[in-house]
Design a protein that fits this description.
By secondary structure, the protein is mainly alpha-helical. The protein is built from seven helices and no strands. The relative contact order is 0.11.
Length: 187
């Protein structure tokens, strides 16, 4: 199989970084605050498959830095940096080295620690009010349950995201990769 040159890897990595940052910019609309960082995380999956884990980490770090500097919605930039950007790389590492039970336990630990770290950074470093982030009014009686409820809901969404990453990798490998390799004359 013909290998990609360093110049090709740099070009692909640069395009992935640029596209990821561009994807994060429309997060000014609250609906996209979590969806677009997750979609940008799919680009990291593409880099893991085509370029390898070390190049994928480079793409992640460049995107994280640029998104923290350029993306107007800091919540989306922090969510990408704290979890969505690197998860595809970590997923590949965990799934290739650990038994299934240990893999899932570690995935949930990483997810929950990342989310708690992200919101701690948003509240402490960026000064965002927690009530605004959670979308609750502090005077409502059920607002004290907002954090546990959001964590439970987040874990459910995480399961879906993990499953979607696996399916996207399979679709890419079976459908798109052969077409791209044929198009660019890589066999």
């Amino acid at each position: 199989m013909k290998q990609l040159s360093q110049a090709s890897k740099t070009a692909i990595g640069g395009m992935a970084v640029a596209l990821s940052v561009v994807l994060l910019i429309p997060t000014a609309v609250d609906l996209f605050v979590y969806a677009l960082p997750a979609i940008a995380g799919f680009l990291t999956l593409f880099c893991v498959i085509e370029l390898g884990k070390s190049w994928a980490f480079g793409v992640y770090f460049a995107t994280a830095l640029l998104s923290l500097l350029l993306v107007p919605n800091k919540e989306a930039a922090v969510m990408y940096t704290a979890f969505f950007g690197y998860y595809a790389i970590v997923k590949a590492l965990l799934e290739s080295r650990l038994p299934r039970v240990a893999e899932y336990v570690l995935k949930f630990v990483i997810f929950n620690a990342s989310v708690l770290l992200a919101y701690t950074v948003l509240v402490r470093l960026f000064g965002m009010p927690l009530d605004d982030i959670l979308g609750v009014d502090g005077d409502v009686w059920w607002s004290k349950y907002a954090i546990p409820v959001m964590l439970v809901m987040g874990n459910v969404v995480f399961i879906v995201f993990d499953f979607a990453l696996t399916r996207m990798a399979m679709v890419y490998l079976k459908v798109f990769q052969p077409k791209l390799r044929k198009l660019f004359r890589f066999k």
